Amino acid sequence: MSVLLKGTVHQGRLILDIDIVAGDEVVAISGVNGIGKTTFLRVLAGLLPLDTGILQVNGKVLDDVDHQLFVPAHMRNVGMVFQDNVLLPFLSVLENVAYPILSTAMSRQQARQQAIDALTDHGVGHLASMKPAQLSGGQQQRVALVRSLINKPQMVLLDEPLSALDADARRDMRNLLLGQLKTLPGTKFIVTHDRLDIAELCDREIAFTQPQSGALGDETQTTIVR
Amino acid sequence: MSTRGRRVGAETPAFVWVGAVLALLFLLLPLAGLLRRVAWSGIFDSVTSGPASEALRLSFITSVFATMIALLLGLPLAWVLARIDFRGRSMVRALVMLPMVLPPVVGGVALLGAYGKSHGLIGGWLFDIFGLQLTFSPLGVVIAEAFVALPFLVMAVESGFRSIDPRFEESAATMGLGPSMRFWKVTLRLLAPSLIAGVAVAWARALGEFGATITFAGNIEGRTQTTPLAVYLLLESDPEAAYALSFVLLAVCIAVLIAMRGSWMGRRS
User: Fold this and answer.
1) Is B103 in a helix, a strand, or coil?
2) CA-based nearest distance B176→chain A, Å
3) Which residue range or ranges hold the ABC transmembrane type-1 domain (chain B) (predicted)?
4) Comparing C-alpha atoms, which of A33, A7, A40 is closest to residue A189?
């Protein structure tokens, strides 16, 4: 077992009540807007602490409310791709991709070389010297994916990586993910609404649902994740 | 759009044009008057000799120090106001902005009340322990200028903080950058245009400070007589130098406007 998450998190009016176990697999996260899919990814990434419960990844406890233990995002080694481009606008594509490994032990030159290799492997080596603003949406997402994987993350989180792309770019990116995701170690979570994405890319689906709200005037909405 | 201005509701009534042109004239006429009175041939000599050059030198040094103080204190304050949700935040923000609307003379009186040697809140204490006398000293000029400039910097940088998409920093965190690395390498870099604009406007404000300075630090030639004070005095004794100095201040302000325009339109990133 790779990811074990049992707990709750409160975000405004939303309560996420999660109890899942996931192995080395690609897991689709589905559900209507506002149901807490992104919140769920943020909990896994360490951008949001749990309010109750425990998160364990590869046998290591990353969040344990009872024992006041919380490993912040920068120490979790996760790869995350957001819905649309969050490449750093003031860095080139190459510098963006090399950034996560610059702080590791390897030399600057090694880091750059590794970044170039990774870009080339993903068919975007020719973009290395460009700035993010010069890229198309599809190219940006490709580069964001390369960046998220360069550190050999123990868990990959993709927040609707295809939804901002047009049809062609979407197909290309889906093919890229198809080749990548199954071969990567660790658990891969991908938030998507698209049945085709779920069918082609994912081993299984976790559908977020909200039971009918309780008493009249109850301000909170509980999302159940099992 | 080829039908621009022809849509119903987009027609401009005549009185709007008249008012707009009058407003523009009202703003530009004094500038034209100033420029007409500048003795261009002797301007260099006017500002590089006598009290004028002393005042420019003092103004430059004090305004740079005042801007540095505003930056060092204003950046953390802007951060807190922009990103930390605490009770009474809007109250604190209003207090921070107070020196922007306060008459500068009142600001000077308030500074005397705080740092005055004999009657100030902590002025006597500063003098007894550190031998520091702020009133009637160049340091007092710096304090007065920083006092009026700080809110301008805080305002510009706070809106800068708010305009940064937090996901840049979040993705930097998932890339393995710790909090201090994120601040130096990501936040500060994204904040740069607002920082430049804030520094520029704070510096311009410090450079032009008159009321608080003359009230708190006095008007001692070579010690606390900054350029605006010198302009006011020279208008009687040496109008040519007064207009020359005024022109220098005007030119600096225009340069600041250009710098801010460039950064606000995001051309620097």
Assistant:
1) coil
2) 4
3) 56-260
4) A40
Chain B interface residues facing chain A, Cβ-Cβ under 8 Å?
A: 165, 167-168, 170-179, 181-182, 186, 189-190, 269
Give the helix/strand (H/E) hosting A16.
strand A14-22
Q: Give me the number of domains chain A comprises.
A: 1
- Give tens-digit pLDDT for B108-139: 999 999 998 888 889 888 888 888 888 899 99
Chain A residues closer than 8 Å to B172 by CB: 88, 99
- Bridge partners, A223 (sequence order): A16
Q: Which residue from B minimizes the CA distance to A100?
A: B175
Provide the CATH number for the domain around residue B74: 1.10.3720.10
Tokens of A157: 């989180």
ipTM of the complex: 0.87
CATH number for the domain spanning A148: value is 3.40.50.300
Which structure tokens are listed for B43?
């301007």
- Distance between CA atoms of residues B100 and A212, nearest Å: 53
> Would an 8 Å CB–CB cutoff place A147 in contact with chain B?
yes
* Number of C-beta neighbours around residue B187 at 10 A: 20
Query: What's the mean per-residue pLDDT of chain B?
Result: 89
Instruction: Enumerate the residues of chain B whose CB falls inside 8 A of the CB of residue A89.
Output: 190, 269
Does a structural domain hold residue B13?
Answer: no
Q: How confident is the model at residue A170 (pLDDT cuts 50, 70, 90)?
A: confident
Residues pairing with B33 in the sheet: none
Q: Is the C-alpha dihedral spanning A138, A140, A145, A149 positive or negative?
A: positive
Q: How many domains are there within chain B?
A: 1
